[in-house]
Specification:
- The structure is a single chain.
- The protein contains 8 helices and 8 strands, in the order αβαββαβααβαββααβ.
- An 8-stranded antiparallel β-barrel has the order 1-3-2-8-5-7-6-4, surrounded by 6 helices.
- It has helices at residues 2-34, 53-63, 98-115, 129-146, 169-177, 210-226, 265-272, 275-287, and strands at 42-50, 70-77, 89-95, 116-126, 184-192, 231-243, 256-262, 288-298.
- The chain is 42% helix and 25% strand.
- 34% of the residues are buried.
């Protein structure tokens, strides 16, 4: 009996410490967002495992365009958890300033946590909208002169050499099993290495940063995207995890958020299984430490 009581005390203490840690992390994140000195708009990225669909639909209606926000994207995520993180939907709301985002969470956050069995909210400083308008215009020009149309069913030969920085095998199997004609959204959170680490001899003989190595990859991969009408539609600099388990995979020091739209799912599969794309893989492997990747379609 004494052992049982002792175990119960330890368990209660552990739970109390976990709650305290969560509260401390949440408070730290709020302060970090409040003190954000960036001039750009703030976006909240909601990663949701929905429990009550009817109440969730009602919440979406009530919270849309409130407190100066704009609902930019709502994406149904492929059923392929990344590092065990199960997500049903991703919602991106943009706010004119940090205070608006915090007020939104105060007003609408508690009900959302009741409706969903898991809620993780990442705050980012958004890149200017003009950036994405320019990229879209460039894509139109590239398509006009160098455009390509993917047809048929892409092969299933490509496998990730390093799943820390690429979609894993299960994600790719699920991606290939979906409707290839539908538009695809790909969510990317990137964490760069301080210095690039090239494994292939003759590449990257001069030491460069992880960011520089990734930029080399992006230049090669970016052209393959643009000529198919695919391009980043949103992105920014991650600030903090505003809601969620402080031990979850998204609670990390991330360097960049990139949200890419492909006109068709087959475009992504054709790109990564093409010869041109393979020229950039070494740069991505060398420059990135890890990623969080989710794929999905417009909800």
């Amino acid at each position: 009996m004494q052992q049982h009581k002792l175990g119960h005390v330890v368990e209660s203490t552990d739970n109390s410490m976990n709650r305290d840690n969560t509260e401390l992390n949440t408070e730290y994140s709020r302060k970090k967002l409040e003190n954000n000195s960036g001039k750009n708009k703030i976006a909240l990225i909601f990663h949701l495992k929905i429990g009550d669909l009817e109440r969730y639909t009602d919440w979406l209606d009530k919270s849309k365009s409130m407190l100066g926000s704009r609902r930019l994207f709502r994406v149904k995520v492929d059923p392929a958890p990344r590092e065990g993180m199960v997500i049903y939907e991703i919602v991106i709301d943009e706010f004119p300033k940090s205070q608006s985002a915090l007020e939104f969470m105060s007003v609408f956050g508690p009900e959302l946590k009741e409706i969903c069995s898991n809620v993780v909210v990442l705050a980012i400083e958004a890149e200017p909208a003009a950036t994405f308008r320019i990229v879209k215009a460039i894509s139109w020009v590239v398509q006009l002169f160098k455009g390509i149309k993917d047809c048929g069913i892409p092969s299933a030969d490509w496998k990730a050499p390093n799943t820390a920085v690429w979609p894993d095998g299960y994600q790719m199997d699920v991606a290939r099993s979906q409707n290839l004609d539908e538009p695809l959204f790909v969510y990317n959170l990137n964490k760069n290495k301080e210095f690039a680490e090239y494994q292939t001899s003759g590449i990257g003989s001069k030491q460069v940063s992880g960011q520089e190595a990734y930029d080399r990859y992006a230049k090669i991969a970016g052209f393959e995207l643009l000529r198919r009408g695919a391009f980043p539609v949103y992105g920014g600099k991650p600030i903090c995890l505003l809601e969620g388990d402080p031990d979850c995979m998204l609670a990390d020091r991330w360097d960049k958020f990139i949200f890419v739209r492909y006109p068709q799912r087959r475009n992504l599969l054709a790109i990564i299984e093409g010869n041109e794309f393979k020229k950039g893989q070494d740069h991505r492997d060398a420059g990135l430490e890890r990623v969080a990747i989710f794929m999905g379609k417009e909800a």
